[in-house]
Write a structure and sequence with these properties.
The chain is mostly helical. 74% of the residues lie in helices and 0% in strands. It has one domain. The termini are far apart.
Length: 203
């Protein structure tokens, strides 16, 4: 029962469309009709300015962090606690990418993933973040940096466990990182096509 409650609440939390609400409030427009059509910080910045984009980024990251911490509290010391937290991590990212309130058309899951992995594996997130910054700096493609950073998160999770903080049972955390990475990359499928065609927008 705890697992079901955690998954449902985390999904609904992830589904809160902060980017959509901020753009609607600030400029009276539907963010889904701008740029990539996503509700994330990058697209919000294009439509409503950098401040709105930063605010969206922070709120979307907060969703991920709150979902993980709330799941930890609810799961307590139970034997399945790590799996319950992993389920919350996945559910909140799913909610952001496929929000029920917007016809299952949301953002790319990057900022929410940042919040999730900041709570779960901060060192791994830092490594992926450095990679993201380097790629964006040299290529000017935010989408490419996001895709590569997401794809490498499982590797950095494993490396963190081996060299920094040993984890007795790595399976729940590794599962969450792999599924989260797959979801984020899937959400960038349009960007991948534009990158391959050489028509992706740069910053």
């Amino acid at each position: 029962m705890t697992l079901i409650i955690v998954v449902i609440v985390s999904y609904l939390l992830g589904s809160i469309p902060f980017g959509y609400l901020i753009v609607r409030k600030k400029v009276g427009a539907d963010i889904r009709e701008t740029g990539s059509g996503g509700t994330g910080a990058t697209n919000v910045s294009r439509r409503a300015g950098k401040a709105a984009g930063v605010f969206t980024l922070l709120l979307d990251a907060l969703k991920g962090a709150v979902a993980v911490e709330w799941a930890r509290v609810l799961a307590g010391p139970s034997v399945n606690a790590d799996w319950i937290v992993a389920a919350a991590a996945i559910a909140v990212i799913v909610g952001h990418i496929f929000p029920v309130w917007l016809g299952f058309r949301g953002g790319k899951g990057v900022a929410t993933g940042v919040g999730v992995f900041l709570m779960l594996v901060p060192v791994a997130l830092l490594c992926a973040g450095v990679l993201f910054v380097a790629i964006v700096f040299f290529t000017r493609y935010v989408s490419l940096g996001s895709i590569v950073a997401a794809a490498t998160i499982p590797l950095f999770v494993w490396l963190q466990s081996v060299f920094v903080t040993p984890i007795a049972d790595l399976r729940p955390l590794l599962t969450a990182s792999i599924v989260g990475a797959v979801l984020i990359i899937f959400a960038h499928r349009g960007n991948i096509g534009r990158l391959a065609s050489g028509v992706e927008a740069q910053i």
